[in-house]
Design a protein that fits this description.
By secondary structure, this protein is α+β, with helices and mostly antiparallel strands. The protein has 7 helices and 11 strands. The protein has a 6-stranded mixed beta sheet with strand order 6-7-8-10-11-9, sandwiched between helices. It is globular.
């Protein structure tokens, strides 16, 4: 937990847990980042997620699939745009992001092959999974997308795709249906790019919850002024002729 004075943004980070059957606690002084504007260490969160995905793949390979592990694998992969042969279905435009059960079934199907060790080598495969993802370093800075300013990749870079051999050989393939915007992910569904924080919204069933605004309108720039830097990075990734679905401060927006 965090305990702070609320004025000078100083806080005490308290970490508790079990170690060798006994509860342990540690306290560290930290400084809260006002407004979340400082992005110097924003990559750490995604780096942790990449390595966590590697660990989860190993867990599936070594101990078999479980609902909890697969759900966490899908959640982290979708939030951060982490593409492996076992989560590449997220980039498939036919995958309904708003239907968790469908995504779980697809993930479970891929996981079954991993758990069955169909690539051969059993423990060697697990070691390669961990090595590939656990050797991840700080993500490279994103570049501006065609047709507009901002900082977004035209497509994230993933290990493999539907090719396990390419994954194990560390051969990179580009995924066109996903953009990595800073440390966030945006998914293409037709003309619409969907931010991970809006992925649970169904464009038809939830249309009454979605507020439509015009890009570069007065309301658009009011949002820009109120947004954090990461939020504006997502807005700036939108190119001409595209639509963007994003959730900002609890409100869903479709930007045309």
């Amino acid at each position: 937990g965090l305990a702070g004075d609320g004025k000078r943004h100083r806080a005490q980070l308290v970490i508790t847990g079990m170690y060798q059957g006994k509860e342990k606690g540690f306290e560290y002084p930290v400084t809260i980042n006002p407004g979340g504007k400082d992005l110097r260490y924003a990559f750490v969160e995604k780096l942790w997620a990449i390595r966590r995905v590697g660990f989860l793949l190993d867990e599936i390979q070594l101990h078999g699939k479980s609902k909890e592990v697969i759900d966490e694998l899908v959640r982290l992969s979708m939030k951060y745009g982490i593409m492996t042969p076992y989560t590449s279905f997220l980039a498939d435009e036919t995958t309904p992001l708003a239907k968790p059960r469908v995504m779980h079934r697809r993930a479970a199907r891929y996981a079954k092959g991993l758990a069955d060790g169909y690539t051969g080598g059993g423990g060697q495969v697990a070691a390669k999974n961990r090595q590939t993802l656990n050797e991840a370093r700080r993500p490279a800075p994103a570049s501006a997308p065609p047709g507009g300013p901002g900082k977004a990749d035209s497509g994230s870079r993933m290990w493999g795709h539907d090719s396990v051999a390419a994954y194990e050989g560390k051969k990179k393939q580009e995924v066109r249906g996903v953009r990595n915007v800073g440390d966030q992910a945006v998914y293409r569904r037709g003309r619409v790019w969907i931010a991970a924080n809006a992925a649970k919204l169904d464009l038809e069933k939830d249309k009454d919850k979605i507020r439509r605004i015009k890009r570069f309108s007065e309301e658009y720039f009011r949002l820009v002024r109120a947004n954090t830097t990461p939020e504006n990075q997502i807005l700036s990734s939108q190119a001409e002729g595209e639509q963007l679905l994003i959730t900002l401060r609890g409100q869903a927006y479709m930007i045309d």
